[in-house]
């Protein structure tokens, strides 16, 4: 494993995105292209991220562990802890930044791109897992429950896990 | 008289009481109504800061908005170290920072109370327990991942994660869509075009950075142009 490249890929994903899910398309394409991760690693890491405490962006740490053990997890932690330090610079220029109409555009545009790229990556993840009536129904039900917003995320995931054990052996 | 009416009947007495700064009950209940000189804002020590973030990091289950609320409870409601306005301002600044917003606000609040040492203890407090728990959970999972039942469970969980993410992304889209609608019909057209281009670039196997740059630069230029062209601003006459 080329540790420097590994770290830089994680750092790039965190630095050039926003939010906990922002790094997802970068890491998915970069790590799978290099053979450093398989599709299922992302489902595993995202699940751990959803049920562990702290920011949900910590799924990246879980991905680090799954792909490169403890050193991978620690490098991933460092990679997600460094970019937010730039907020100290942002805080000084915040009022000037806010006065440009372009700033809001850049942020809204990033969200649009993240949703577009994310949709492709999610479709790949779904297909790699197997497309059949049961997986389609599970995905649709989970989306409906999440839209509704009353069922907690962990409960939806536990339900899906049980469905998998019973229906997808 | 119903219980509700009885409650209302006693309310004026409490309200007039609240004018008395020395009433300990009201001092506790309405900090924002009190003059700052009578109730100077407390500041956490470095150790206090560390312990507060440690508590937040270890108990914040449920991701983004749940954690945001927890931070607000600790710093604004319980300790009164920050006013609601301070917190709102910090949260607004964080939106412009790269990476995970919750880590950025940890940095910002840490700096506010303790400079760079404050940043260090805050990050350590927030991340050490949650990172340790995340690693421990992943390590435990790694021990059982090859069990057939676990593999079957994962086959069920993966489509559910995709479904959850679709709902999450839909919610994420609301804000930019509102911004685009405010900029008229051309705004919505340009936004949807950029969304389609970003999707296509990634689907064609182009680097994700291209898609992100297209979205960010495209809408940045459009918002700037829209703010200057008079027809996009009907209220200026």
Structure commentary:
The complex is a heterodimer of chains A (169) and B (237). Chain A is mainly α and 169 residues long. Chain A has eight helices and no strands. Chain A has helices spanning 3-15, 24-33, 39-51, 59-81, 87-99, 101-129, 133-148, 153-167. In chain A, helix 2 (24-33) crosses helix 6 and helix 3 packs across helix 4 (59-81). Chain A is globular and about 55 Å long. In chain A, 57% of the residues are buried. The model of chain A has no long low-confidence stretch (mean pLDDT 93). Chain B has nine helices and no strands. Chain B has helices spanning 3-17, 24-29, 46-59, 63-78, 84-94, 101-144, 148-182, 184-203, 208-228. In chain B, helix 3 (46-59) crosses helix 6 (101-144), helix 7 runs antiparallel to helix 8 (184-203) and helix 8 (184-203) packs antiparallel against helix 9 (208-228). The longest helix of chain B has 44 residues, at 101-144. Chain B is flat. Residues 5-38 of chain B have low confidence and may be disordered. The chains are: A mainly alpha (169), B mainly alpha (237). The interface between A and B is large, with 105 and 102 residues.
Quick description:
The complex is a heterodimer of chains A (169) and B (237). Chain A is mostly helical. Chain A has helices spanning 3-15, 24-33, 39-51, 59-81, 87-99, 101-129, 133-148, 153-167.
Biggest interface between chains: A-B, 105 and 102 residues
Give the beta-strand count of chain B.
0
| SSE order of chain A, one letter for each helix or strand | HHHHHHHH
> What is the share of helical residues of chain B?
over 70%
State the total count of DSSP E strands of chain A. Answer: 0
Instruction: Tell me the structural class of chain B.
Output: mainly alpha
Keywords:
heterodimer, A: 169 residues, mainly alpha, 8 helices, globular, B: 237 residues
């Amino acid at each position: 494993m080329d540790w420097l490249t590994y770290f830089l890929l994680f750092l790039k994903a965190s630095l050039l995105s926003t939010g906990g899910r922002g790094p997802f398309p970068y890491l998915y394409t970069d790590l799978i292209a290099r053979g450093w991760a398989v599709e299922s690693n992302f489902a595993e890491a995202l699940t751990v991220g959803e049920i562990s405490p702290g920011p949900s962006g910590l799924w990246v740490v879980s991905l680090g562990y799954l792909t490169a053990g403890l050193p991978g997890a620690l490098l991933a932690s460092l990679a997600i802890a460094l970019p937010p330090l730039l907020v100290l610079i942002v805080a000084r220029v915040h009022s000037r930044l806010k006065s440009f109409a372009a700033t809001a555009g850049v942020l809204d545009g990033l969200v649009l791109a993240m949703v577009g790229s994310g949709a492709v990556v999610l479709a790949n993840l779904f297909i790699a897992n197997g497309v059949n009536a049961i997986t389609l129904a599970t995905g649709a039900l989970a989306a409906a429950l999440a839209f509704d917003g009353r069922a907690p995320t962990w409960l939806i995931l536990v339900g899906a896990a049980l469905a998998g054990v019973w229906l997808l052996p | 008289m119903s219980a509700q009416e009885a409650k209302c009947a006693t309310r004026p007495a409490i309200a007039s009481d609240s004018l008395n700064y020395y009433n300990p009950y009201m001092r506790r209940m309405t900090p924002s109504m009190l003059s700052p000189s009578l109730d100077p804002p407390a500041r956490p020590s470095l150790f206090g800061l560390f312990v507060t973030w440690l508590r937040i990091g270890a108990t914040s289950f449920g991701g983004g908005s749940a954690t945001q609320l927890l931070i607000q409870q600790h710093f604004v409601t319980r300790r009164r170290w920050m006013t609601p306005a301070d917190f709102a301002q910090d949260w607004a600044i964080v939106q412009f920072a790269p990476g995970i917003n919750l880590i950025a606000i940890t940095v910002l609040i840490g700096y506010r109370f303790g400079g760079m040492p404050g940043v260090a203890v805050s990050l350590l407090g927030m991340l050490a327990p949650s990172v340790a728990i995340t690693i421990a959970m992943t390590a435990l999972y790694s021990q059982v991942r090859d069990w057939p039942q676990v593999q079957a469970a994962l086959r069920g969980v993966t489509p559910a994660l995709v479904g959850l993410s679709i709902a999450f992304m839909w919610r994420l889209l609301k804000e930019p869509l509102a911004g685009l609608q405010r900029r008229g019909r051309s705004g919505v057209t340009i936004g949807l075009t950029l969304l389609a281009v970003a999707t296509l670039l990634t689907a064609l196997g182009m680097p994700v950075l291209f898609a992100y740059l297209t979205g960010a630069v495209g809408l940045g230029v459009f918002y700037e142009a829209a703010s200057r062209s008079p027809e996009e601003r009907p209220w200026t006459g």
